[in-house]
Structure formats: structure tokens, C-alpha cells
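Dataset card, provenance and construction

Sequences and ligand SMILES were collected as paired inputs. For each pair, a complete structure of the chain with the small molecule in place was predicted and serialized as C-alpha cells. The example below shows a pair involving zinc ion. Curators did not alter the output after generation; any descriptive sentences attached to a record were derived from the structure itself.
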Amino acid sequence: MESKERIMEEFRRKGFRATPQRIVIAQIVLKSKDHPTAEQIYQAVKKKYPTLSPATVYQTLHLLTEIGLLQELGFSDRVSRYDPNASPHINIICRNCGKIQDYQAESIKGLWSQIIMELGFKPIGQRLDIYRHCDQCQANMHNNQVL
Ligand SMILES: [Zn+2]
Ligand SMILES: [Zn+2]
């Protein structure tokens, strides 16, 4: 997914210019696994390319979302996170610290194709979230209770 050629092709197919800056930012964010915030993406980009402005990074994130390479996960109580995983999967989200992990399994693929068959149309996007308290937060809560 993060190959340069594929990114360039996607940009052009949707009528956007595949500038070197956009390619670089896309490559960094599409490689990410931890559902980063825009700020975290900017910091990662800045480390490699100190001259790129935050505006360029944020605009590119919007573009990538618009052309469907990236999904913006908005939350009512915290800042948006970006998810490059376009295939149907479940985001396991910690309500306490906001950490997000992907859960991908054959069971989801099977269920997903069944749902699409039942709906009778092809969805243009999806978002499946499960909330929990992650192991670390559970451990912290437990410790606080004990103290
Ligand atoms: Zn947590
Ligand atoms: Zn995800």
C-alpha cells in the first residue's frame, strides 16, 4: 500500500498532483500502525524533513483522506487519529488513554462479506470500534485501588 508508485497513481487518478512533499508525507503515514494524531505525524515527518510546514502535512492528511488512502477517526472527546488500514477491521480503543490497536481476523472478513451481500450495495467506507481499558490502564487502575 505504501509503495511510491501506488501513492502517485492514487493521487493522479483522483485529479491531485503527486508532489514530492505529498509522497513523502503519505509514505510516512501509510506505514504507521498506531493510529497517530496529525501532530504525531507532523513530528515524524519533521524528523526526516525539517523544512516541511505543519500546514503542508495537515493538508496532505486531508487529501489522503479524501482520496481514500487514509481514514480519519474522529472522536467527540479527543483529537482525531489517522488509520491507513483500509480493509475491514476492528479498532480496539482504550477509553482511558486512547491507544488504538487493529484487530483483523478471518471472522471479520467472513462477516463483512456476508453483511455486504445482505445490504445489496458496496459501502464506500466503514468503521468498527470496540472500547476497553487496555492492559496497562487496567494495571494502573488496579494499583491505584490497592494503594
Ligand atoms: Zn489505556
Ligand atoms: Zn485501525
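Derived descriptions for this record:
The helical segments are 4-13, 20-31, 38-48, 54-66, 106-119, 135-146.
Residues 106-119 form the longest helix (14 residues).
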